[in-house]
Each structure stands twice: as C-alpha cells, then as structure tokens.
C-alpha cells in the first residue's frame, strides 16, 4: 500500500476570511510577528496499488472531489509502502 498526503489551499487570488479571522485573533493575543494566515485542508490517503498509475489516481481524485480547481490549489506527497 502507498500513503499519499494531500494538501489543499485556496489560490492566492482568493480571499480567505477564515485565515483573516485567525490572523486577527493571533494579533490580539500578542503574536504581532504573524503577518498572515491561510487556512487549508490536509488529507491522508492509503491506496492499494492496482493496474492504474498512483499519480493519475491521486490527481483525478483531487481534481474531481478533494479540491475545487476553480478556487483551490493542491499538492501531494507519495510515500513508499505502508505496512498495516
């Protein structure tokens, strides 16, 4: 099996009201050095190898379900075999 870490974030051009709220809260708590916060999603997929290319499976899943390609970007990391 293969473990895939998927990171989904809003595109830079998209406003992030949740990130802004967290940024403001951190500022009010005295963390003046925090300049900006962007909120995203993190997912771990465990994939059993089949006849399909793992990267193709992950890209298709990200583009069709795990992210909204209009407003979000994604990246992923594939780790070697995972034992269960």
TrEMBL record:
Reaction equations catalysed: N(2)-formyl-N(1)-(5-phospho-beta-D-ribosyl)glycinamide + L-glutamine + ATP + H2O = 2-formamido-N(1)-(5-O-phospho-beta-D-ribosyl)acetamidine + L-glutamate + ADP + phosphate + H(+)
SUPFAM superfamilies (alphabetical): PurS-like (SSF82697)
GO CC, any one term: cytoplasm
Organism: Neobacillus notoginsengisoli
Pfam short name (any one): PurS
EC number: 6.3.5.3
Coiled coil: none
InterPro entries in alphabetical order: PurS, PurS-like_sf
Domain of life per record: Bacteria
Subunit structure: Part of the FGAM synthase complex composed of 1 PurL, 1 PurQ and 2 PurS subunits.
Subcellular location: Cytoplasm
Keyword set, alphabetical order: ATP-binding, Cytoplasm, Ligase, Nucleotide-binding, Purine biosynthesis
Designated name of the protein: Phosphoribosylformylglycinamidine synthase subunit PurS
Pathway it works in: Purine metabolism; IMP biosynthesis via de novo pathway; 5-amino-1-(5-phospho-D-ribosyl)imidazole from N(2)-formyl-N(1)-(5-phospho-D-ribosyl)glycinamide: step 1/2
Family of the protein in this entry: Belongs to the PurS family.
HAMAP family assigned: PurS (MF_01926)
Functional summary from the UniProt entry: Part of the phosphoribosylformylglycinamidine synthase complex involved in the purines biosynthetic pathway. Catalyzes the ATP-dependent conversion of formylglycinamide ribonucleotide (FGAR) and glutamine to yield formylglycinamidine ribonucleotide (FGAM) and glutamate. The FGAM synthase complex is composed of three subunits. PurQ produces an ammonia molecule by converting glutamine to glutamate. PurL transfers the ammonia molecule to FGAR to form FGAM in an ATP-dependent manner.
Biological process annotations from GO: 'de novo' IMP biosynthetic process
Enzyme category, top tier: ligase
């Amino acid at each position: 099996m293969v473990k895939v870490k998927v990171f989904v974030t809003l595109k830079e051009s998209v406003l992030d009201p949740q990130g802004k709220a967290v940024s403001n809260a951190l500022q009010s708590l005295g963390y003046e050095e925090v300049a900006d916060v962007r909120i995203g999603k993190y997912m771990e997929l465990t994939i059993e190898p089949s006849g399909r290319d793992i990267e193709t499976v992950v890209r298709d899943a990200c583009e069709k379900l795990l992210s909204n390609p209009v407003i979000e970007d994604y990246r992923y990391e594939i780790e070697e075999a995972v034992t269960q």
